[in-house]
Write a structure and sequence with these properties.
5-stranded parallel beta sheet; 252 residues; 15% strand
């Protein structure tokens, strides 16, 4: 794949001239069990030297996944909902934790998911909650630190470093998959311009550069163009201002 990276390269040169650093992280969703794509994801993470925060679906996670992750320290598991089941009302956007769900029921599933993965995966699990489809009714946020979560991760730039109280907000910002169209790679020139504009906004103070810049992938549905672009983009960012960021459990 031959791409014109000029818009991003120009922006990265400005970051270099101003000696700026970009905290960079990688989140990949929907892990359940070891698969060929998961092995490929792990290998790419190791080659790049960039950890993957792997969003694992608790209700379906297998012991085989736990065994695989034991030998993959660059894979950092986090909690991806409970069953990854759409419970939104008809006509609404997909969501496992919509506003019409009883709080006690929703929190029980979140807590059960955290407990199951802590038991299955051990201390490698980080207490980040990744809601399926990146959606979660805000009424649940004030309760989540109390059941053991330290952070929540969705999509698009955060409005605040805290989602609620002690609960951190650590989002993702670029998804290379054309979900509503081809389900292959978004037009790469569009993605390159998008990254360049997102970095420009951070450089000039229009966006929060304290928030790690997050690349969101879904290994199970990648085709070659998605794999190739993801590797090329991450390589470029890491060779420029990108500094590796990984979540570490905080003490409230």
């Amino acid at each position: 794949m031959t791409l014109d990276w000029t818009p991003l390269d120009k922006e990265l040169s400005l970051w270099k001239a101003e000696a700026l650093k970009l905290p960079l992280w990688w989140r990949d969703d929907d892990a359940i069990e070891p698969t060929e794509p998961l092995h490929r994801l792990s290998d790419l993470s190791a080659i790049l030297g960039l950890p993957v925060h792997l969003a694992v679906i608790p209700a379906a996670a297998t012991s085989e996944l736990a065994e695989f992750l034991q030998s993959q320290p660059q894979m950092i598991p986090v909690v991806h909902g409970w069953q990854h089941r759409n419970l939104a009302a008809e006509g609404q956007k997909k969501c496992e934790f919509p506003e019409d769900r009883p709080i006690d029921q929703a929190l029980l599933e979140m807590e059960t998911g955290l407990s199951k993965l802590q038991e299955l995966l051990g201390p490698s699990l980080q207490p980040i909650f990744v809601p399926p489809w990146n959606r979660l009714a805000p009424q649940f946020l004030p309760w989540m630190a109390g059941i053991g979560y330290h952070a929540i991760s969705t999509f698009t730039p955060r409005k605040s470093s805290r989602a609620s109280g002690a609960l951190e907000q650590i989002n993702t910002h670029l998804d290379p998959i054309d979900w509503k169209g081809s389900r292959s790679l978004v037009a790469p020139e569009k993605l390159i311009h998008q990254v360049a504009e997102q970095l420009r906004a951070r450089r000039v103070g229009e966006a929060d550069n304290q928030e790690p810049y997050g690349i969101l992938t879904h290994h199970l549905v990648h085709d070659e163009s998605i794999w190739d672009f993801t590797e090329a983009l991450l390589t470029r960012l890491l060779q420029g201002p990108g500094t590796v960021w990984r979540f570490e459990t905080r003490t409230h």
